[in-house]
Write a structure and sequence with these properties.
423 residues; alpha/beta; nine-stranded mixed sheet; four-stranded antiparallel sheet; 22% strand; binds manganese (II) ion
Length: 423
């Protein structure tokens, strides 16, 4: 079993941090990190990742959704998949996604350099559509790998009206090749992902690493209110059909309902579009997108129902037209108990401060594992991040923790036994 000295852990951490910084320099904007799916920045990041994979001794390919795949052959056709994403939110931090891809490359490199065939192959996957920041869907790249890509997604358009199908073509790929991205059933032994926690639990418990028990379920509701444009100075208040005032009430209703669940459900509106969008015109058309999450399927469903009926009542009272569409429905996804245990063993084996049972915690963020779970058992390893801050340029994880995470992943691969996953 691999055994790492403190200086080897530091060296792994330093390499990981330098690679994180190299990807963070690839952005659509000079002053903030923005790297959206199937854009020139995605192309540049995937090229960089492909170079690292080759340098690590992996064979590189790319599928129709732009997922870069670095392969290390094993003694059998079974593969352990290790991945994360290289797309970002708008004004992102630099660790969310890229660190998981980098950890996978550094772990695969360890085994490629050792030159000994593992009883299974390793595929390192760099997905391009985890954040859903460009198209109103998400996980399309991991869904293609899992064989659950929905063809209807191809018609979804970004803010500029470019459809996913057109973006795939512009990226130099063919939508006809999407089915070929899927792994054959039985080929994938498991999918594992290393990710910063994006929350405060590990920091509060003074632990660098933890094992994820499940990934939270999520609903996106696209709510469109239709009112009537009018002069801001001449139309009396009682005669208005103000779409934005209706949307504001709906947003407060979402907040009130979620607060009443005592932490069981969270609801957010982070995106709103107002038309015509002029100071002196009564808003005629407003679209708000609710992001609603919970570890409990029933609590999420209950809140979504209450919100839908509350919004219908608001629209009726204000004489507004209304359409509500669900654009994302992702179920709460458990991590496989045996993968959790194998990750915990690998963490414990690092010894020192990690010698005890590692914390087990749920993920409040969405991850590619939610699509990959339709293909094979999944597991996730979380790394402490400063203040639990994420989706924010202040995101930070210290290099020693990054090194420990890579060492734990290497230890996991060395111990990985697909036969222990039954049941
Ligand atoms: C992705 O990070 C999400 O949880 O929205
Ligand atoms: Mn992420
Ligand atoms: Mn994210």
């Amino acid at each position: 079993m691999p055994n790492f000295s403190p200086s080897e852990i530091d060296a792994l951490g330093a390499r990981a941090e330098a690679m994180v910084n190299a990807l963070a320099a690839i952005s659509a904007e000079p002053d903030r990190l923005v790297r959206l799916f199937l854009t020139p920045e995605h192309r540049r990041a995937a090229d960089r990742v492909g170079e690292w994979m080759r340098e690590a001794g992996l064979t590189v390919s790319e599928d129709a959704l732009g997922t870069a795949r670095g392969r290390l052959e094993g003694a059998t056709p079974k593969r352990l998949l290790i991945g994360s994403h290289i797309d970002t939110v708008i004004d992102a931090g630099k660790y969310d996604g890229p660190f998981g891809v980098i950890a996978g490359i550094l772990a695969a490199e360890h085994f490629a350099r050792a030159g000994e065939r593992l009883p299974f192959g390793i595929d390192v996957l760099a997905f391009g559509d985890e954040e859903g920041s460009r198209f109103p869907a998400t996980l399309s790249s991991s869904s293609a790998c899992a064989g659950i890509f929905r063809k209807e997604s191809l018609a979804l358009a970004d803010r500029n009206g470019v459809t996913l199908a057109d973006a795939i073509t512009a990226y130099g790929k063919s939508t006809d090749d999407i089915p070929a991205a899927a792994y054959a059933r039985g080929e994938a032994a498991a999918y594992v992902e290393v990710h910063i926690e994006q929350g405060p639990v590990l920091e509060v418990r003074n632990q660098p690493l933890g094992v994820v028990t499940s990934i939270i379920g999520q609903t996106y509701l696209n709510v469109e209110f239709l009112g009537e444009a009018g002069h801001a100075g001449t139309v009396p208040m009682a005669l208005r059909r103000d779409a934005l005032a209706g949307a504001a009430e709906a947003m407060l209703l979402g907040e009130t309902l979620a607060r009443a669940t005592d932490g069981e459900v969270v609801a957010t509106v982070g995106r709103i579009a107002v038309a015509p969008g002029a100071t002196n015109v009564i808003p005629a058309n407003v679209v708000v997108i609710f992001d609603i999450r919970s570890g409990s399927e029933s609590a999420r469903a209950r809140l979504v129902d209450e919100l839908r009926s509350g919004i219908r009542a608001i629209a009726e009272r204000r004489h507004l037209g209304l359409t509500i569409t669900s654009t994302r429905e992702v179920a709460t996804t458990p991590c496989h108990p045996a993968v959790q245990d194998q990750l915990a063993d690998a963490i414990r084996a690092l010894g020192g401060e990690l010698a005890g049972a590692p914390p087990r915690l749920g993920s409040g963020a969405g991850h590619d594992g939610q699509a990959m779970a339709k293909l094979c058992p999944i597991g996730m390893l979380f790394v402490r991040c400063r203040g639990g801050i994420s989706h924010n340029p202040m995101e930070y994880a210290n290099p020693r923790d990054l090194g420990l995470a890579v060492a734990a992943l290497i230890g996991f691969v060395a111990r990985f036994d697909p036969n222990r996953l039954a049941g």
